[in-house]
Amino acid sequence: MTVGIVMLVHTSLHRAEQVARHWAAAGCPVVIHCDRIVDRQTYQTFVRNLADVDEVSFCKTRYRCEWGTWGIVAASQAASTQLLRTEDKITHVYLASGSCLPLRPVQELVDYLADRPRTDFIESATTEDVPWTVGGLDAERFTLNFPFSWKRRRYFFDRFVELQRKVGYKRKIPAGLVPHMGSQWWCLTRQTLSAILQDPDRGVYDAYFKRVWIPDESYFQTLCRIYSSNVESRSLTLSKFDFQGKPHIFYDDHLQLLRRSDCFVARKIWSKADRLYSAFLTDADGAMKRTEPNPGKIDRIFAKAVDRRTRGRAGLYMQSRLPNEGWENGVTSAPYSVFEGFTELFEDFEPWLTRASGARVHGHLFAKDRVEFANNEDSYAGALYDSAKARDYRPKAFLTNLIWNTRGERQCFQFGPDDNQDVEWMLAKDPNAQISAITGAWAVPLFKTNRNFSDLRAEAARLQKIESQHLDVLRSYYAKARVRIWTMADFVESPMEPLQMIIDEIGPKNLRRLTEVPRMVDLTGFGQFLQNLKNQGMHPHLMGDFPVGDDPVQPKDQPRKPYLVR
Q1: Of 231, 299, 430, 551, most Cβ neighbours within 10 A?
Q2: What is the pLDDT of residues 381-400, one digit of tens each?
């Protein structure tokens, strides 16, 4: 019993020579098909280098094996036909590439196949059951015509597909064929492979598959279903693909990973991975233990790698991975709190919040003039500095950087209608954001200033318009942040409960009742101020109901009762 090897080679011929000698040394006849793109001189040198190995021969006809075209199937057919014609003892034919590397002693593969003399190992599934097609065509690859190369003539390829769809063109699938798809790297029994190659209707099948897209993933996968009595729909070659459908390349640092796979052969191996070639092209004593091939052992690792590559880490953006809008794995990396209207309504609100919550409390990070970092610092973690111009170049990135650079410490900052509003949608759609808003509090600084009333009215109208639009964003269907909104009148009437709720959410591990509250600014005359705005034609509706002459009463500080310590 012998296993024959068909090798499709087009590059890194020195590595293909090394692997061919390894197969031949184990008693496996090898037929090599060298891509026609390889120049004559390089090819002849390759042939001369292997002339001393009797078990190695070269395919008489060379085809251009361009990806997605018929040439790969034609090369496999020609090399397999030559191998079956010259080697009578072959029971299985194993299709490999020049970048494939045997991971276990060849004799183990021979013994494994000898125990399964009637089993064909080829990935073969119908188009409805194939989940791995990425960015391509499923059923249409069998019903449309593909005369143009996808790689070299992409424009004509796409336009011709569009034209066929528009006119409703569909090719007729030959009678008796049920299209199947799978990996091109198979191991077929002599009976099945010879039946495919010697089929009286082969001309009909070949003519049909010549115009199928990527026929090397469907030709043998479909025809084996007609002739095989026992198809095991899996490949004995370990090949992994990324989320774009491109094969993973294995490097020297994948040595232990490949050992854990227990597979017989792996592809694609980097041509300069000297450690891999020296480790696996060795004698049986230094090889892996005998066991059933189980690529599932490393599937979890590849799944994590794909997830990290496609989704990244929450809140981490860099030049090597800048996802499209909506593709990010979390807008920011950690929870944070946004306060709107609190610094306007309370005196020394930021120091009080720092004491009450233990969080890092900033001022208006998106103020027009500068970035108001905590403690009035001019720079902060991660080389962020207080330049408004630098921040406004990419305000969203500024915030994600701030949250990423301070992981483990809760960040709080103030926000208002006079700030840069470019981040409002980001805040609203970020599940990590906790937004507490007191509407209309922007009017308090106007109330306290000594300006011409006509200027105050214009400024109030501008700020109210901005905040009104901002509130629409916070209440949007797309908002995912934890949002709480109070009118200023409601908040002033009963501030303790909202403040306690906010503190509890910021530091749920240290739940305690508030013993100290921030001092509210003096609002005497504020109701009359709002009435004056109304009288001048501006309607301030975001503050709630502040009756004229019914000013909020400020709680007086009660002297503490003396007590005796014994």
Answers
A1: 430
A2: 988 999 999 999 999 999 99
